Amino acid sequence: MSVSDLTRKDPTAPMNDVTISDRAPEPVGPYPHARRAGDFIFLSGVGPRSRDTTEIPGVTLDDDGNIVEYCIETQCRACFDNVRMVVEDAGASWQEVVDVTVFLTDMKKDFAVFNRVYEQYLGETRPCRTTVEVGALPTPIAIELKVTVYAPRDGGVGP
After folding, report:
1. Does 157 fall in a domain?
2. For the chain, what is the radius of gyration of the CA atoms?
3. Residue 135 domain boundaries
4. Which uninterrupted H or E stretch holds 8?
């Protein structure tokens, strides 16, 4: 099954339905933006790319596609905005985010700014969080988020 074969499904559909957002950047591989399993929604890794373009907000590339410079704050904001679109398109709300895994390519340089932006976006929601440094990400980005949402199908209240 290709990504183009996957479509957004009704949030009341059976377990394991997938979400392909019409607003968030397209996945860079053969996977959906998110998949529901019971009352949980698991997002694929989401970066700061823009939809329908190769543009990455806050990144300057050389002619060979290598990063010349980047603004981690701009990338963080774009990343959180993209995650919010996927969460909403999956039929959930920002307040139902329960876990975030953060991948940064330069922890020492970027963590303080990332943490400040994170507080602005998720400070009141207070999900669990793990932050790890990685050597590289699949596209020339400095941050990627992996998010889990608890959104009961029965209309119950999440966290």
Report:
1. no
2. 16
3. 3-150
4. none
